Amino acid sequence: MADVNYFKSDIREMEFALFEHFKLGELLAAKPYDHISAEDARLILKEAHHFATEVIGPTMQSTDQEGAKLTKDGVKVPRALHTVYKQFYENGWNTLTLPEAAGGQGAPMLLGVAVT
Fold it and tell me: What does the alpha-carbon distance between residue 48 and residue 91 come to, in Å, rounded to a whole number?
């Protein structure tokens, strides 16, 4: 049976909330976030949505079925999560809101929460 994506989200709703309600555009126009444009933020949201639906989503059923297990050697997570987390770190999602001085991308936490 093919993996089914169980993750659903609406980028338009997220963009509306971020840009219209929370004024992300104004936040991005000011220091220390002025290195990220509104277009960059929209692209980040789009890529996060793609990662969630194409990488994480299809693993949800199998990881639920396999489950995490506590063994004498520690916690063993489902096999699919190893691939997901590897890609998560390779794509830099873990550094999105870290300051640039610390090796991060320096995005505002508001954008980071939406991505998460």
Answer: 10
